[in-house]
Structure formats: structure tokens, C-alpha cells
From TrEMBL:
Protein name according to UniProt: galacturonan 1,4-alpha-galacturonidase
Active site per UniProt: H282
Similarity section: Belongs to the glycosyl hydrolase 28 family.
Gene Ontology cellular-component annotations: extracellular region
Record function comment: Specific in hydrolyzing the terminal glycosidic bond of polygalacturonic acid and oligogalacturonates.
Organism: Mycena belliarum
Biological processes annotated in GO: cell wall organization; pectin catabolic process
Catalytic reactions on record: [(1->4)-alpha-D-galacturonosyl](n) + H2O = alpha-D-galacturonate + [(1->4)-alpha-D-galacturonosyl](n-1)
Alphabetical list of InterPro entries matching this protein: Glyco_hydro_28 (IPR000743), PbH1 (IPR006626), Pectin_lyas_fold (IPR012334), Pectin_lyase_fold/virulence (IPR011050)
An example molecular function term from Gene Ontology annotations: polygalacturonase activity
Amino acid sequence: MMLYGDLYNGLMWHASLQNMRPTTSLLLALSTLHIVFANPPSRTVQDVEHASCTLKALGSGRDDSPRFLTAMQTCSTVVVPTGTTLNISARLNTTGLSNKHLNLQGTMRFDPNIPYWSANGFPFTFQTQITFWILGGRNILVDGGGTLDGAGQAWYDAFASNSSLLRPITMTLFQATNVVVQNIKMVNSPEWFNLVNEGKNITFSGVTLTAASTSSHRAANTDGWDIYRSDQVVIRDSVIDNGDDCVSFKPSKLVSVLLTSLTEPKDSTNVLVSNLNCTGSHGISVGSLGQFAGIFDIVENVTAVNIRMSNAQNGARIKAWAGPGVGSGIVKNITFKNFIESNVDNPVVIDQCYMTNATACAQFPSNTFIQDIFFTSISGTSSGSTVAKLACSPGARCSDINVNNFSLSAPSGTAKYTCQNVNLTGNAASLFPACTVT
């Protein structure tokens, strides 16, 4: 695949540089990093700038973030070795990188200094987020089998008594192109684990995400991935145990999402999501959409395939706002295919009156239209009697909703299927009674 070819060619370009002597000032600057070079013989100036190096922790609670930032700017390959835990006590801006490899074998732990991060985390206006770390540039590889530790327990406890607390996303890929994040673990993010914002050619593979609270306060809003204004994103072969959406496709002006191919239609975000094992989540979610007045949201050409969902609130879900003072948009050509669900509250969901009561939704129907939706080969068990609920807004706001090859059961008795304000097609349509009209 071109993505990988471009990435590895970019990472290895420095190998052919000509021989020149390094400058004394550059060597002195590098020596202050406490970095151990993998190949210490003499190098050119350019070779030293792009050397492979190993970054070890200062220890005793001292902050490793300045040295990490310098290493990422200076070295082409940065190794955090097994058994090393870097203490990250200040925000990380590693944007504008080119041809970099972070070989994370050990751990990067973000110090849970809540006052510092709440005041200094990098702000993102989208859904009022902040982040520990922004990573951007071209041709970047993050791998090594190590761990990004968000130290989220302090945040879970603090949020329980202060619901307005801004909590950091662990890693944000911002304006990044040709990035691979593979074979790493991420634990206890305070907020979302990953935000992909304005990225292109992004791959996550073999990633394990875990958010688990050790107190009575849940690990809230710990989405696995949120994809926003990004193109050609791959999320595959990963395991997620968290407290919110497994993957969420966020809208933006003239943005669409495709989850099965890597074609490049104009104004579309091509995202492949496949072979995920999601536990405790809020599902694979399109939206929520149409929340903000004056904004027209578009998500189209989405396919999520081969998903296992266990002990979760939702399985395959689309959610759009209704009511007074909301926005508008379109959700088009969405496919959820080959979902195996176990003990899921709502295995199949369309909620076009999201966060809106029935009276307000009837008076102010959703302005986000939903069409060309395919739920195909959905099997497993719900936690309650209702296994599918397709609740569209009044006013013909849903069209061409297709249901095929359903094999869903309730814990006891007959599984219940419900629908409203929609005409269903497909071989599973007969499982639904006549849809109510509101």
C-alpha cells in the first residue's frame, strides 16, 4: 500500500547523506539530552541531526518532556527503551516533524497535575477539548510495543465532583500526513484516547486501549478514536475496553467518511475501521451531528466491518440532534457490516432526536437528514428485550434504510424490534412491526 511505502521511504531517506564533520555546537546541544546514540562513530552534520538515539528517564520525578521534545526535533529515530518510564509534566508540541520514528518500548506517563493541564493543555475549540500532546508533520511512525499512560484515575475522581473540568486527550494527530501508529498500548486516558484532526493517510493498527477506574467514579468520555476533518484514516486489528464510543466519526463542513476503501473522492474522509474488539463502549457511532446552529454537517460513505461489541451501551449507532436552535446536515451511504454483539443494550440504533424529548422533536424535527443506510449481518445478544431501535425524526427525515441478515436475541423471551417515521427495506424488515408515525 502506498501509505507504508511512502512512510518507510521517508523514514530512511537520511541513510544516503554525504560525509561531513559535525559542528561542536551541535554535538554539545545533543549531549545535554542524556541520549545514548545507537551508532556512535563520526557523523556528518546532517547525520547527527537525524541520528538514532535512546532517551532515558531523569528519574526522581523530574520532568522528561523538554528532553523528549528536543529528541523528537533532533533525532530521526527516538527509542524509549523497555523498563524506562518518561515523566511527562509539560505539554508536548511535536508538530511540523518530517521522517520521524518513535520506537516506544517503555512508557510515557503524563503526570496528573490537574491544575497545570487544565490551564495549559493545548486547546481545541471542537467540542471544547484540550490535549496533552499534538503530533504532526509528514512520514511519522510510532511503534515499539510500549505504553502511553494518561494516569487517568485522578481525573476520573476529580470529574465526578466537577463536571466542567477540562480533561486532556492523550494524543492528537494534528495536520499530520503519512502517519502509522502500531503495536502500542494506551491506558487510562483522562478524556478521549485519540483525536485525528485534519489528518491524511493515518493508520492505527494493533493498538490496545484500556480505561479502567479503581474507584466508584467511572472512566467517562474515554472515546477510543474521534475522527474530525480527516482523510484516509485506517483503524484496524485493535482491542478497546473503555467508557465511551469505541470509534466516533465527527462531522465537519463538507466532510464525509468511507470505511472500506482507500479511494479519494472529493470532499470525503476515507476511513477504514475493521477487526475491532470493543468492550464496555458506547458503540461505533456516527455523530452526534447537527448540534450547532449555523453549521451544516456532512458524513457520508462510511463502512465499519468485522466488529465485536461486548457489554456495551450501543452497537452500530447513528445519532443526530433535533429541537430548537440546532444545526443541520446530511448522513448518507453508511454501512455497518458483520457486527457480533454480546450483552449490548442497543445493538442497532438510529436516534434522530438525540438529546431531545419527543415533544420538542415533533415540533422541531431534525435538520440532519439520514439516507442510504445499511445494517447488514448483525448478530448476537442484547441486554434487554429491544434489539433494534430505529427512531427517525418526523417529517420524512430518514430514507432508504436497509436491514439485512439480522440474528439478534434477547436474554429471555422474544426479541423486540421498533421503528418510527421510517420505511424499511431488506430481508430483516419483516422483523419490525409497522413503524409508528409521530
